[in-house]
Amino acid sequence: MGKSARKSFLGSFKPAIAGLAAAYRSQFNMRFHVAVTVLVLAASFYFQLAPLEWCVILFCIGSVIVAELLNTSLEVTVDIASPQIQEKAGLAKDIAAAAVLIAAIMSVIIGLIIFIPRILPLVNSWM
Predict the structure, then answer these.
(1) Residues carrying an active site annotation
(2) pTM
(3) Whole domain around residue 112: which residue ranges?
(4) Which CATH number fits the domain that encloses residue 107?
(5) Residue by residue, what is the 3-state secondary structure of the chain?
């Protein structure tokens, strides 16, 4: 890969990084998901998860972040296409938000399955 091709390849990441930064700045839920991600990653290191558990945790984190990014993108697109309030525009937004909710709930359940067996012995040793 030549120097200009490499530069072009790296430059192709700029819009994605800009989009991620814009979502983080403008969306409370994205900031919340990132904060939870930091906590989950810290717990994952602390409890020394097995490689497969790491894969599951990273997949859960990725699915929630991707769902939130798609939801935000859809909301912006709907607002542009339909600046006036319309029932179907609201329905589209609600359905996209439901996708984030489902991804988050499933990720919490998976996190509980992975972390509760590690947390309970600590709690029991403190009591």
Answers:
(1) 68
(2) 0.88
(3) 3-126
(4) 1.10.287.3610
(5) CCHHHHHHHHHCCHHHHHHHHHHHHHCHHHHHHHHHHHHHHHHHHHCCCCHHHHHHHHHHHHHHHHHHHHHHHHHHHHHHHCCCCCHHHHHHHHHHHHHHHHHHHHHHHHHHHHHHHHHHHHHHHHC
